[in-house]
Design brief:
mainly beta, 13 strands, 8-stranded antiparallel β-sheet
């Protein structure tokens, strides 16, 4: 029997109706949360397709992806505005730890992060401790998903970069974080190409905003699972049919977002994001 997946529980109330809006489910578009209008509506996992996880588990399915996001951020308050353009390219693998007809336990491991700012190459990191490179999720057949954490990057080339491992929030990190929430912080050492754990973040300051907006290192929509309406690996790859190596994946998935929100601290955040997900192995 597989070990139960650890999840962060909200001790202030029920997860779905809590004061802080913690929620571990992907919802249908148009879903309303009861307590907090701060929460953005994330994509749900579309379940109207054949369940692929048992075959993926038996066939030791372990694809590798590259997720590129170019983010144009403008944030601040009043007349004080700060802008930046960040280009982050994350490579990661997906592995099915266990699967049956009801649920699948999946591990996602980041094996590289490449950073650009503006048009300038900043650096590449591939020595990343597991607390900053791995997440586990349980995907249920009804579309419900549980995560054990979120992974973000924050910083710029002048002040440096950090990786943040936080509880899973279904809200923007600047809005969802509260004092006392567990956050692991890793400082990115670009010279050595590694992440080193540190006690406290210098760059993530939600109560005295410094212009730096944390960016998720992984897709925050249904593309993360390569399953649903938009799939890179087609049905032959999922269900074990023989096929030519060159046809294992068919195309990239591109999306654009325009996102605006205000935090409780009064910070206005607006960013345009262009993302591309491709399977590379």
């Amino acid at each position: 029997m597989p070990r139960a997946l650890p999840t962060y529980r909200n001790h202030y109330g029920r997860a779905h109706r809590s004061e802080y809006g913690w929620c571990r489910q992907y919802h249908h578009p148009g879903h309303f949360h009861y307590a907090s209008s701060r929460i953005h509506i994330s994509s749900h996992l579309y379940v109207g397709v054949r369940w692929p996880w048992k075959i993926r588990y038996r066939s030791h399915w372990r694809p590798r992806y590259r997720y590129r996001q170019v983010v144009y951020v403008n944030a601040g308050w009043g007349g004080r505005r700060l802008s930046q353009r960040v280009d982050v390219r994350t490579t990661y693998r997906q592995r099915v730890l266990h699967a049956n007809d009801q649920y699948a336990e999946i591990e996602i491991e980041i094996d590289g992060i490449e950073i650009y700012q503006g048009d300038r190459y900043v650096g590449y990191i591939d020595r990343i401790p597991s607390r900053f490179s791995r997440i586990r999720a349980t995907v249920h057949a009804d579309g419900f998903i549980e995560f054990d954490r979120n992974l973000h990057i924050v910083g710029d080339r002048y002040r440096g970069f950090e990786v943040l491992a936080t509880p899973y929030y279904n809200d923007y990190l600047l809005n969802a974080y509260r004092d006392g929430h567990d956050v692991d912080v890793g400082k990115i050492d670009l010279r050595r190409g590694k992440v080193k754990s540190i006690r406290r973040s210098r760059l993530f300051t939600p109560y005295s905003f410094n212009g730096l907006v944390p960016i998720s290192l992984l897709p925050d929509d249904d593309r993360l699972w390569d399953y649903g309406r938009d799939v890179i690996s087609d049905a032959y790859d999922d269900y074990g049919f023989d096929r030519n190596r060159g046809d294992d994946w068919r195309y990239n998935l591109e999306r654009s977002d325009q996102i605006r929100y205000n935090t409780e601290a009064g910070v206005e955040v607006a960013y345009n994001r262009e993302t591309v997900l491709e399977r590379i192995q």
